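So, could you explain the following?
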Amino acid sequence: MAKTKKAPSPSTWRCSASAAWRGIVDASLVICGILAVVPEESTTPDLVELARRSIGHEDIEAALSFYAPDAVWDASPWGMGVFEGQAAVRGFFEDWRSSYSDIEWKAEEISDLGNGVTFAVILQKACVVGSSGLVQLRYAAVAEWMDGLIVRNTTYTDIDEARAAAERLVQERG
């Protein structure tokens, strides 16, 4: 399901003579003193952008800023448990990162599936502490969002299983 953006209401429009130079309106309207009315861009990021920002922060506190105070990190599909609340999620992040050096994450795919659900495929690269070998982990994250914060993030090593779970979740939340 593709994300559909709602047309802005007239109350969010602003006048802009520069719109003519961007080809939005006829330049003669501006020359004659009639300013073009163009929609003002939203300052609220969409869920795809929020998900992108939430992935791969070096700073744990910055990463946690995307999570609700009572957020859940569910790593049970990996057999690693469920962590409830920011303190528990912080502990999981700290434990995970303590095993690696030079850790980085890259989102290969991020989709807003609707009903406050995002799906992401993430590639993690790092060196195991005490080793010079590089390890990679490709996994999927299914995040549930409310009021711009993650309330639950479930991670899967099986990308197809994650995608199916995300699609079911969208239907349940619909």
About this structure: Strands lie at 13-15, 37-39, 67-74, 82-84, 100-114, 117-128, 134-146, 149-156. The chain has six helices and eight strands.
